[in-house]
Amino acid sequence: MRSHFVWAAWTMASLAVAGCGGGASATSGGAASAPAVGNAAVSDKDCPPEFVVDDAEDDNNQVLVRAGRGGYWYTFVDKAGSTITPPSQSPFMMSPGGARGSQYASRMMGKMSASGQPLFAGMGLSFTDPKAAYDASAYSGVLFYAKVGAGSASVRLKVPDGNTDPAGKVCSECFNDFGADLTLTGEWQKYVVPFASMKQMDGWGAPHPAALDKSKLFGLQWQVTQPGANYDVWVDGVQFTGCP
Length: 244
Description:
Layout: H1 8-11, E1 25-28, E2 52-54, E3 73-77, E4 95-96, E5 104-111, E6 121-126, E7 141-148, E8 154-159, E9 178-183, E10 189-194, E11 219-224, E12 230-241
Antiparallel strand pairs: 1-10, 2-12, 3-6, 4-5, 5-12, 6-11, 7-10, 7-12, 8-9, 8-11
């Protein structure tokens, strides 16, 4: 198994704190379709293999190599004393027990510091390696399964793009990524988040474009920020939506 880890360039891509309401919908694993969300209706059906970003079943830290993708999973954490497992700047390891009876899933766990700013901990995946913008114009959103163990259920999905990630060379106040705030449960649920429903947070960051730039995406991140909280977040079956 090839080991690979992503350094501080990805670790710093998480300075946002949870705030604005997202446009995600959650369904149980057996639901046929999700309701209209935000200003876009997105089917939650499973698309063909080329839409799947990673299902964790190969038990390594690389996303599935297909459709121009081949990046890696990683974790990131603040410098205020929060903890995270798997450790940041170390190879990400999958955990046994995935969604829908699968063998493996992505998991992060730890404890947030009770004080300090900014506070954040998260896991994410890059679409490419080395890091570069990925053109996701052909897709309409993202779908994944998620749950929590003990601790905080509040998680923000973040999607760094060419306007919010420093690698895009556009932002003057970076890391206010488009995304959605989620409240997870203790059971696996399917979450469908249309790109058109994703929002930046109010009050900070520059620029504030009208919408996510689907043509220049750098990855996906799941982040927690609640001071003093324990957290145990699981993600599986990540894929794009938009197939016929």
